[in-house]
Amino acid sequence: MSKYLAGVTHPLRLRAFRLLFVGRTVSAVGDAVVPAALALAVLRATGSTADLALVLAAAMLPRLLLLPLGGVAADRFSARRIAVLADLTRCATQLVVGVELLGGGPSLATIAVASAAGGTAAAFALPTTSPLVTGTVDEAQRQSANALLGATANASRLAGPALAGALIWAAGPGWAFVLDAASFAVSAALLAVIQVRHLPRPERRSLTADLLLGWREVRSRSWFWSSLLGHGTWNGAAAVLTTLGPAVAVERLGGEGVWLLLL
Question: What mean pLDDT do residues 185-213 have?
């Protein structure tokens, strides 16, 4: 086995995967920046945790509810095109929020709608990673490719909130969102030029049949649905922290600098 793996080309030596890797990394960092930047931006604009909860929910609920549809779409259509369109959408939504904040009198409704559109785009972007990897590397390289993307995604989740805080501290909330929009534009540009092998389409089924099949696959693997429950519990707690944490830091612990340090 070691002799076999020794002869396998590293995924990053392949131009298509290299561009995919850079694009997905930039996109993941942009994704990770959004919640923390949004939290401080809304608190600066309104000072209300209720408003913050509304905006964060507007971003998260479409992502949560539409993710299964995103998976079906990634199977049925071109994953590369979906990923490019999703990144362009998120670029536009972040730019709208940035312009609102730079204008000095941001509209909470506009920010909430833009956040919902960004969450919808994320729901369709996330499931495209697997078919994109399959279409850019050979089977022998797939495990390494997935490991690279997984490590980058986890690193982005750790670094994203701190990066968001640094951007807000250095340039202000508006420019933080403008730079975030630029990261999605870069990702879309890189994804637009990669060559992805044609993958055979799955058996034609109705949308309902596809969703039911996916649900059966989840239920048949106890390790998977138990992991979903664990992640759901964690995300519920993280949502409370993301909403109340910056407010407590700003009002009782000394200001935004304390929250940035905690991040």
Answer: 83
